[in-house]
Amino acid sequence: MTYRQKRIAINNIVMTLSTISALIGLGFLLWILGVLVFNGIEALNIGIFINEGAPPGYGESGLKHALVGQLLIVLYATAVGVPLGVLAGTYLSEYAQDSKLAQTIRDISDIMMSAPSIVIGAFVYAIIVMPMGHFSGYAGAAALAIIMIPIILRTTDDMLQLVPSTLREAAFALGAPKYKVVIQVVYRGAKAGILTGILLGIARVAGETAPLLFTSFNDNFMNTDMSQAMASLTVTMYNYATSPYEDWQRLGWAAAFILSMFILGLNIIGRLFLLRKRGK
Amino acid sequence: MSVIIDKLFALSTKITALSVLLIVAWIFTVLFQHSMESLNAFGFDFITETKWAPNLEKFGALPAITGSVISTFLAMMLAVPIAIGVAIFLSEIAHHRLKAPVGISIELLAAIPSVVYGMWGLFYFVPIIRDMFGGLGIGMLTAGIVLAIMILPFMAAVTRDAMNTTPDILKESAYALGATKWDVVKDIVIPYAKAGIIGSLILALGRAIGETMAVTFVMGNVHKISTDLTAPATSIPVTLANEFTEADTDLYFSSLFELSLILLVISFTIISIAKFYFLRRKRSL
Question: For a FRET experiment, which of A32, A238, B19, B44 has its CA 20 to 30 Å from that of B114?
Fold first, then answer.
């Protein structure tokens, strides 16, 4: 075999191997997606949205309590996490810029983005659940907000920096004070990007289970009082899936399907925003 | 008037930015404070003791720590070659019409909550392992595999991004000299993007070691170090997820907080190595 033939042969082997590994990887992922869609759609019916949790085999049971709880917890987390994240990102991009402090904050929040979420749960347990003496929706929302802040901070920082500095200079030249420049010019220029960051942030925390296990805990019934333990889709999914009852397991799949579709939807909308922005 | 608003706005952004540092410092402090009781009771033995017996008030973290290390190691062994394969496929082999849809679906799969992977593992993968190896089907091996599958999309996506930083002109020059695709990958892409690829893999490792839900379903939470990979085992996140709501004594809680602290320190270290040593911050999305 000549050297050239050998190189081509090795190339073919490696390319085949890497295509096979891509197929294996995609195969597993399609399998999971297929299972999710198949079981989810099968379990889905109108009762899921109007019934609360019921003991297994004891009447129609649904996910209304978990859906409402999930929405409330994520809503509160968003209400806290988004303003904090956006303001902090504004500080990094518009005020501190490349200072050492800004760099440190960027680095730390980058690390926080990948830190284990269950540890955040333990932290919130110590600062909120223990003093209050019981689990609460607020504690769950606090844990999710802590996870959300670094994500929003980082995207806001990046997106604001994409706004051309000539725009800022033009506004300054007209005599606008800095806060007006930031709010009326920079934010407006980076609107789509910030919104994408917020959507991805919400999508990220909506799927978190670990930090809710011992903060908002769970509840089998409808509850809109955030100071009490509260059901969420993720924790409900975990409890139902590990239960031995088939109708609970079915509900678990329905919850998984609804939640995954919600998260995928947010991701797709977020990407479309960015694409449209780039297209301009 | 507007001067005051200006100052207030600047101040409020500064306070929120500083609060990020404050929260992180607060997390470490609170976890450390709550670990004190366990630190005083067991000292350094906590991480070398193999016995975890809440009823006897004896807590040793070694089974959980080894469980974390072994399950993550298994997951990395399985996921790294496949992720690199997928990344090579996406950056060099796939037809350009295939690149975007496959790439985006992998990114979207990385967004699916890990609890779904765990559920799939419990219902569809545990029976397979049970049929193949006997036993319960729950344990280290299953956890490693499910963890590998869960981390794969993230790992493949970041590795591909690292490979894509190679300038096209370098690759084109190599192709013009008659290089095969493998020659280009091995002699151009990998040397150029080496730091980024290693950094991405370590970042994925940092995520995998703290991952809770994908493994909690399939690990079993048994505090025992076993040479049998198919036997039920535990890891730090699995212990926390299973026992935090069950703990009844102060020492039990304190030991769980110490476990959280250990996990946080481990993953902080791994992620910092990836971020600071290998990945310099890139100004792009």
Answer: B19
Domain parsing of chain B, residue ranges:
52-278
Q: In 10 A of CB B18, how many CB atoms?
A: 14
Question: Taking residues A135-158, what's their average pLDDT?
Answer: 95
Side-chain-side CA neighbours of B175 within 13 Å: the count stands at: 9
**CATH code for the part of the protein at B52-278:** 1.10.3720.10
Helix ranges restricted to H, chain A: 3-43, 46-50, 64-90, 100-114, 117-124, 130-132, 137-161, 165-173, 178-180, 187-189, 191-206, 210-213, 233-241, 246-279
Residue in chain B closest to A153 (alpha carbons) equals: B17
> Per-residue pLDDT averaged across B51-68, rounded?
92
User: Within a domain: residue A229?
Assistant: yes
Q: Which residues of B touch A217 (CB under 8 A)?
A: 245
| Distance (Å, whole) CA A123 – CA A129 | 10
pLDDT at B69: 95
- Could you tell me if B209 and B189 are in contact, meaning their C-beta atoms sit under 8 angstroms apart? no
Select the residue of A26, A106, A256 nearest B281 (Cβ to Cβ).
Answer: A106
Residue A116 shares a structural domain with residue A14: no
Residue-wise pLDDT tens digits, B160-201: 999 999 999 999 999 999 999 999 999 999 999 999 999 999
What's the domain range around A24?
3-43
Nearest chain B residue to A246 by CA distance is B123
State how far the Cα of A177 lies from the Cα of A188, in Å rounded to an integer: 16
Average of per-residue pLDDT across B101-107:
88
Average pLDDT rounded to a whole number, residues B151-155: 95
ipTM above 0.90, yes or no: yes
- In a shared domain, residues A109 and A68: yes
Predicted local distance difference test score (pLDDT) of residue B283: 39
pLDDT-based confidence at residue A279 (cuts at 50, 70, 90):
low
What the block records as the tokens of A137 is 């929706």
Residues of A in contact with B34 (CB under 8 A): 126
Question: Angle CA(A113)–CA(A111)–CA(B159) in degrees, nearest 5?
Answer: 80
Residue with tokens 């902080």: B268
The tokens for B231 are: 């036997």
Same domain, A33 and A151: no
